[in-house]
Amino acid sequence: MSSKYAFTKALKEVRFLFCHTGEGSAATRTFLTRAYPTMKKNNPFTPILLREASGTLPKVYARYELGKEKSKSLEGLTDKQIEDAVTQLVKDEA
């Protein structure tokens, strides 16, 4: 799992938005509980932001060099599907 979360050098920030109590964000919370320590350990200088807000649909944003940004909805995805979506974003060069 460690190489899976080795971010590309072009990646400047990863931001997760989700509801802290909503059922739609349960898989996102599970994923972050499991994967956040590994992501942060492998990328200590890249900000990984967790934004919890009531009623927010789960989504991940990746910000790259020159202000380019990509996002992916995590609504309705399983833990494994979230892992695949995040891996794709953090490996992308924008």
How do the strands line up in the largest sheet?
Answer: 2-1-3-4
Q: Total number of β-strand segments?
A: 4
Q: What share of the residues lie within helices?
A: 25-40%
Rounded to the nearest angstrom, the radius of gyration is: 12 Å
How would you sum up the major sheet?
A: 4 strands, mixed
Helix and strand composition category: alpha+beta
N-to-C SSE string, H for helix and E for strand = EHEEEH
Query: What is the averaged pLDDT score?
Result: 92
Name the poorly predicted regions: none
Could you please describe the fold and organization of this structure?
32% of the residues lie in helices and 26% in strands. The chain has 94 residues and is of the alpha+beta class. It has a 4-stranded mixed β-sheet, covered by helices on one side. Helix 1 links the parallel strand 1 and strand 2. Helix 1 crosses helix 2. It is globular and about 35 Å long. The two termini are 22 Å apart. The model has no long low-confidence stretch (mean pLDDT 92).
State the main characteristics.
94 residues; alpha+beta; 4-stranded mixed β-sheet; globular
Compact summary:
By secondary structure, this protein is of the alpha+beta class. The protein contains 2 helices and 4 strands.
What is the secondary structure topology, with strand pairs?
Elements: E1 11-18, H1 26-42, E2 48-52, E3 59-64, E4 69-73, H2 79-91
Parallel strand pairs: 1-2
Antiparallel strand pairs: 1-3, 3-4
Helix pairs in contact: 1-2
